[in-house]
Amino acid sequence: xxxxxxxxxxxxxxxxxxxxxxxxxxxxxxxxxxxxxxxxxxxxxxxxxxxxxxxxxxxxxxxxxxxxxxxxxxxxxxxxxxxxxxxxxxxxxxxxxxxxxxxxxxxxxxxxxxxxxxxxxxxxxxxxxxxxxxxxxxxxxxxxxxxxxxxxxxxxxxxxxxxxxxxxxxxxxxxxxxxxxxxxxxxxxxxxxxxxxxxxxxxxxxxxxxxxxxxxxxxxxxxxxxxxxxxxxxxxxxxxxxxxxxxxxxxxxxxxxxxxxxxxxxxxxxxxxxxxxxxxxxxxx
Length: 285
Fold this sequence. Notes:
Layout: H1 2-26, H2 34-43, E1 67-69, E2 74-79, E3 82-85, H3 92-105, E4 126-130, H4 136-140, E5 147-151, H5 158-164, E6 172-175, E7 178-179, E8 187-188, H6 190-194, E9 201-204, H7 210-215, H8 218-223, E10 226-232, H9 239-249, E11 253-256, E12 277-283
Parallel strand pairs: 4-5, 4-9, 5-6, 7-8, 9-10
Antiparallel strand pairs: 1-2, 2-3, 10-12, 11-12
Helix pairs in contact: 1-2
């Protein structure tokens, strides 16, 4: 049964590949942009990929050393001299398949990259990592940040997150809740959780619930004078347009990351390719 499902899944991917090629080929030459041309070039020469770019291929060959912490029996890898732990039910083979995706997402050429040289977390910032999962984003900026609030609703990640950030307990708080537009036992809003507390940077990856998080941040978005956001916009068909519209209404300056993703785990409609990260900032002087 699994082989049959895999067969039909691959057939769907081949079909989607040609739909995207057909769609991009239909764009008049004087209207297609360079980023669309790059995706078209890739798809004509490669199998469809969530990240339709050649830079991804370098991660298929990289050797990955997965270590075991005998004190807690959790697997981890060493990332820039720091330990990144994985949830207890993730075996080594699964980590070998998943970790390269994390590397691809944050590659300098990736459309999913949160930060750039010019758009970064500053020393002393208070950071919200909403939808942390492994916590690799927070780990990458741990030395810079003065305080990090990690929100992860999946309790299976808590043990790993606590192990990863144990050297920085004094400035990392892990909250096992959904961030949303309601406040109850399992959910919280940014407006209610933080009220008048300082926030400098928000990273948000919540599987398509980004708009709900922003709606639960109305007071913050209206009143804050200086803040940066990096928000995922590829989970749902209209997220890029809707999230950009909401933030510009609150006087944010916005810019999308370069390139596109083909998020084929979700139902895709034309134009099929989606903008991945919206970087938004407000800096009233």
